[in-house]
Amino acid sequence: MSDQTAVQPPAAGEDEETPLLDRRPTSAESQISNSRLFLAVFSAVLGNFSFGYSLVYPSPVLPQLQTSTTDPRLWMDTEQAAWFGSIYALGAAAGGLGAMLLNDVIGRKLSIMTSAVPSTIGYMLLGGAVDRWMLHVGRFLTGVAGGMTAASIPVYISEISHPAVRGALGSCPQITAVFGALALYALGLVVPWRWLAVAGEVPALLMVALLALMPQSPRRLLSLGQHQKAEKALRWLRGKRYHTHVELSTMQHSINTQGKVTWSELAKPVYYRPIIISVVMRFLQQMTGITPILVYLEPIFAKSKVSIEPRYDAALVGAVRLFSVAVAASLMDKAGRRALLYTSSLLMFLSTLTLTLNSHATPCPLPPSPHNLTGLTLDYNPHDALGHALDAGHQTAASLIPLISTMVFIFGYAMGWGPITWLLMSEVLPLVARGVASGLCVAVSWLTAFMLTHTFTHLVDRFGLYVPFLGFTVVCVFCLLFTAVCVPETRGRSLEEIENYFRTGRTFTISQ
């Protein structure tokens, strides 16, 4: 992404439309400066950093809360651990529904800032917990904050960005969420679980401080009839050498032609098609198993008998996840959304299939036989010793299969179904219903995540890892088919062109 982007000059005769254009540069070419836009995006996505951090909080914490030395008031059995891992998703669903209202009442920017309140309170409860209820309430509140940011930040970014960089910037929420998760995994190697909660408060507070200095969405300001504020906000985001009137008039035309949507109008393809696509994508995204895998990463590796210590495995997977979303961001506006979704679905399918076969073939460990141990000690045979050594080497290599397969799964998810699901939601949803529909998408997503995360622990206890991994494999096939049949290619398209595609059902081109 370059810091400056050239755009076409305005049509002749438009110079005298408004005195605000007296500040235009004398050059015939309008220039976009992206530096302030990048700063605004960075300020917003700090909320996603906090979201990624809080989502995977149980991964290093649950093993510490299930040891024999844990305070009895905090110790967790399987059912309590399932609630600790999954209640976050219930909070995120509540936060998504709250953002559904707040996005249209107080705007995207203020909705993002408001999320810092439940986040801070939740981390205070986690850090100072003296009873299990404090841990569960703290997880729920950080989930509320995560749901609010998940519903608001992608919409805010899409509305302040221009088409040349919107794809890359649209992947930033996913990238910073991955950064947050990796920070949690890394800190979990050396920091006690209470101090992990204290550290989690920092990003949310920094987000509020920076976002207070950023402008509101120009689209929202125009929808409120605040034209001068919208022009000022857009000029701040694009730079002094940018001709704002062309983009503002396009936004205003889009707003004027939409009006208020009624329940009967939701039956029109321009409304129901993008909403259904967004909701189904968020449902399938969660059904791939990404949330339970991330939340229970260390316990999964422990049960898979990976030869490396589980906490180090988790950190390695976090690093791979970060690398993959960086690759996806660089390819987003080059390869296109659909190509990355195809690649993502295929990689996830192959990795979950491997995990399914591996978990089905992995035998339960049997206690060593004292008789056999005695025989090995007294009747030593060099050929037997060589056989045992080769068998041990084979087992060590085989024990890396779950780690490698999980890395491939995370790589595939972060290449496509992670960031593109968020980006497409913000691109295809109609402006008139965007606040409500984005909240609905987040609520559906996190209710699905709650159901899956809570059920995952019980399925593993009863059937092992084989059954849930088999289910994830089947879902990845549906992801591939859904991409082929339902998902449009939005690369390089303006939000107005995308909306016209759903209105006409056949073309992105807007008839003048």
Describe the protein's architecture and organization.
This protein is mainly α and 512 residues long. Mean pLDDT is 79; it is low at 8-27 and 364-394. It has a two-stranded antiparallel ribbon. The two termini are 31 Å apart. It has helices at 35-55, 58-65, 78-105, 108-114, 116-127, 132-160, 163-170, 172-188, 193-211, 218-223, 227-238, 244-256, 269-287, 290-295, 297-303, 310-331, 337-361, 370-378, 382-399, 401-415, 419-428, 434-463, 466-486, 495-504; strands at 4-7, 30-33. Helix 3 (78-105) runs antiparallel to helix 22.
What can be said about this structure in brief?
The protein is mostly helical.
- Computed CA radius of gyration, to the nearest angstrom: 25 Å
Tally of DSSP helical segments:
24
- Structural class category: mainly alpha
Helix proportion of residues, in percent? over 70%
In quaternary terms, these chains amount to: single chain
What descriptive keywords fit this protein?
512 residues; mainly alpha; two-stranded antiparallel ribbon; 24 helices; 2 strands; 73% helix
Give the SSE map:
Elements: E1 4-7, E2 30-33, H1 35-55, H2 58-65, H3 78-105, H4 108-114, H5 116-127, H6 132-160, H7 163-170, H8 172-188, H9 193-211, H10 218-223, H11 227-238, H12 244-256, H13 269-287, H14 290-295, H15 297-303, H16 310-331, H17 337-361, H18 370-378, H19 382-399, H20 401-415, H21 419-428, H22 434-463, H23 466-486, H24 495-504
Helix pairs in contact: 1-6, 1-8, 1-9, 3-4, 3-6, 3-22, 4-6, 4-9, 5-6, 5-9, 6-21, 6-22, 7-16, 8-16, 13-21, 13-22, 13-23, 13-24, 15-16, 16-20, 17-20, 17-23
